[in-house]
Structure formats: C-alpha cells, structure tokens
C-alpha cells in the first residue's frame, strides 16, 4: 500500500483500513486509526505505521478519541448494545424510555440514531418486535387470558393490543391462538 493510498484512506476516514495501518501526527505526538473522526491533520505532519506497536516505539501516544491502542474499540456499538439490553429488560413495563436512555449517557434522539445505524431498525420497531414475539409465544404456549397477555407485553388497553397484533400477524389474537396452540 502506498503512502498516497494511506493518506486517501485517512482523509476519507475509511474504517475498512482500520487495523491495516495507523497514522501519526508529528505536531501532536498522537497516532490514530484511519477512521478517526478527529480533525484531519496537515499532510506534511503525517507519517504511517503498520502497527500500533511501531507507532508507540516511534514515540507517539494513542488517540483518546479513536482509542488506537485497543484492537476493537467501538463505542457506538457498546452504546447500542446497552440500549438493546435496556429495551429487552423493559419493553413490557411502562417506563420513561427517554429517562432510561439518559442513564446510558446520551439523549433519546442520539440513541435513536445510534440504534438505527447499528441494528437497522428504530427503537420503537425493535420494541414492537419484542412485544409481538412474546405475545405470540404466550398465545401459543399458555392458557392466559388475552387481556392478561396484552398487559404483560406492555399494552394498557385491549383494543390497542388487538390492532397491534392483527397488524403484525394478519390474525386477531384468538385466531392466532387457535391456529398455533400446542
């Protein structure tokens, strides 16, 4: 790989080159991954290394933003996983998701962006899927009343549950149960 190819990857923040090479900035004494979102340095201040070890031996320290010292640092993925776990733990409870997301350290809006980027679905689509899967399981595996199932998967009323379930499966809950009960 030529230095021009490495510079192009650095300039474009190309994550596909992460782990293949690192760039260091002479004026700051820091080395980064090609995907680092820090300000693009002047070309004359940049040098390239094949490994983070080589960059450290040359006297550069790891970037605190892209964590070039860690093999697999993906903070957005970690945040998305925390949100996913929170949704899985609370999809059937009435709680203020905005407040719960703030405990993770990001706003609800930013979390929605991160989650969609990571999993390809919105927060509400993910919660709806969790509710639908659990409702289908309960209808086929238990004798619980439909109203009890509606409440246990997080609905506060039967009509909204019926509408949601029929939109998701094409069948009303009673018909689904009749077809799928074990």
Description:
It is a single chain. Helices cover 53% and strands 7% of the residues. It has helices at residues 3-11, 52-57, 75-90, 97-104, 108-119, 123-141, 146-152, 158-169, 173-180; strands at residues 22-25, 30-32, 46-49, 61-62. With 182 residues, it is of the alpha+beta class. The protein is elongated and about 70 Å long.
SSE map:
Elements: H1 3-11, E1 22-25, E2 30-32, E3 46-49, H2 52-57, E4 61-62, H3 75-90, H4 97-104, H5 108-119, H6 123-141, H7 146-152, H8 158-169, H9 173-180
Parallel strand pairs: 2-4
Antiparallel strand pairs: 1-2, 1-3
List keywords for this structure.
single chain, DNA Methylphosphotriester Repair Domain, Arc Repressor Mutant, subunit A, 3 domains, 9 helices, 53% helix
The largest pleated sheet is described as: 4 strands, mixed
Count of runs of 4 or more consecutive helical residues: 9
Low-confidence stretches: none
Tally of separate domains: 3
Rough outline? elongated
CATH architecture identity of the largest domain = 3-Layer(aba) Sandwich
- How helical, in percent, are the residues? 40-55%
The CATH topology annotation of the largest domain reads as DNA Methylphosphotriester Repair Domain
CATH superfamily of the largest domain: DNA Methylphosphotriester Repair Domain
Order of strands in the sheet with the most strands?
A: 3-1-2-4
The radius of gyration is 24 Å
**Mean pLDDT level:** 87
CATH class of the largest domain: Alpha Beta
Output the structural class.
Answer: alpha+beta
Strand content: 5-15%
The helix-strand sequence is HEEEHEHHHHHHH
Please give the alpha-carbon distance between the first and last residues.
Answer: 60 Å
């Amino acid at each position: 790989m030529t230095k021009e190819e490495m510079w192009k990857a650095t300039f474009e923040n190309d994550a596909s080159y992460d782990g293949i090479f690192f760039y260091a900035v002479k004026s700051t004494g820091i080395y980064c991954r090609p995907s680092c979102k820090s300000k693009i340095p002047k070309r004359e201040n940049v040098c390239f290394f094949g490994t983070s070890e080589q960059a450290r031996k040359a006297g550069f320290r790891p970037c605190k933003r892209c964590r070039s010292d860690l093999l697999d640092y993906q903070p957005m993925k970690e945040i998305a996983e925390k949100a996913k776990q929170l949704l899985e733990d609370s999809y059937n409870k009435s709680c203020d998701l905005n407040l719960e997301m703030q405990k993770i350290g990001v706003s609800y809006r930013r979390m929605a962006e991160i989650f969609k980027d990571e999993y390809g679905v919105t927060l509400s689509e993910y919660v709806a899927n969790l509710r639908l899967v659990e409702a289908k399981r309960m209808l086929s595996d238990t004798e619980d009343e439909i109203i009890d199932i509606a409440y246990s998967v997080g609905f506060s009323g039967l009509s909204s549950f019926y509408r949601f379930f029929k939109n998701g499966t094409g069948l009303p809950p009673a018909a689904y149960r009749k077809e799928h009960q074990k």
